[in-house]
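User: Can you help me understand a structure? I only have the sequence.
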Amino acid sequence: MTQPDDIAALVLAAGLSSRMKRFKPLLPLGPTTVVERCVKLFRDAGICDIRVVVGHRADDLIPHLERLGVRWIVNNRFQEGMFSSVQAGAHDLESSRKAFFMLPVDIPLIRKTTVLDLLQAFRTEEGDVWHPTFMGRRGHPPLISTKFRSALLVWGGEGGLRAFLAEQHPRTVDVEVADEHILIDMDSPEHYKAALAKLTEYDFPSNSECKVLLTRKIRVDSHTLAHSMKVAQVAVLLARALNERNCSLNMKLIEAAALLHDIAKDRPNHAEEAAKILRELGYDTLGWVVSLHMDVRPTPEEPISPQEIVCLADKIVQDDRIVAVEERFKDKLWEKSHLAAAQDRRLLNILNIKGRIEKTLGTPIENLLSSAPSLVNELIR
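Assistant: Let's start by predicting it. Here is the structure, written out as tokens:
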């Protein structure tokens, strides 16, 4: 990965944590701490120059930063609010830096792809401030040109960074990202609990993130979108029914895989191409499930798998209609004799998967689908 040597990242960790009642930077977050996760975010994106602004309980935080090998900046005015930390960080920047990320430490779940998208926009789209946006809403971390550094250091107005930037009339670039975490902060104990819960699902994009990938990033056509939505509805219905019978299927994984299985539908070998896209986004397990959605050979002695659910759901949805498995295999493509063996194998595998699921459910899948009013409701709204 090319190192963006002219870009710095400022992590603001000087605040009082008054609403949290605990020191936010050192709170556990998965296997690490909040501040370490923020540092790792930028490191993983190739940013070498990472600086953490400290203030409240600086003596507790600095040893951790030294172990992380990052530069720290003391803000002695931290009680004046977050903008004083922005000023302290900007004051420390060298003239060789062209722009800097600004990330409050209490927004620790940003995805690496968000930083990479902002860096790409910085290189390709002229501007002064590059804002990540999710479904039209701006979030963190903005990437800010250092052209404003001198004015920022002497500004004494009200309203913080947003008010300061508004006075500068910058050229702004909104960068759409498939990352709902740009909008999620961690100000209170309740927010912290929510962040811990989010972390358990972090390896898979949420329903909203899938929506952005489908409609704003990859931009699949309306036919593919309608099909994917219906496949997801069927897959979630099957998985929920199976879990009610003591299966342990990951609903988030199944929903995301079903929604995103055809994101490369217009390419040859589209299943593997879709998996490649997802792996590049950091979703390795999701990519693996999607890579198998065309054909899965069930293993009788193993539990029903997410890939079986997604594969079956895809095969009983024709366009955006629920059909019999056999009808799905009547596509003219299969009339070519040299593909007959592959057709027979796939059909046999699908029927075996269907049989496994029906045995667990104790009823034909058709009965389950016909009695589900939820299938008239769209997953993506």
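Now, to help you interpret it: The chain has 16 helices and twelve strands. Residues 207-376 form a domain with the Hypothetical protein af1432 fold (CATH 1.10.3210). Let me know which part you'd like to focus on.
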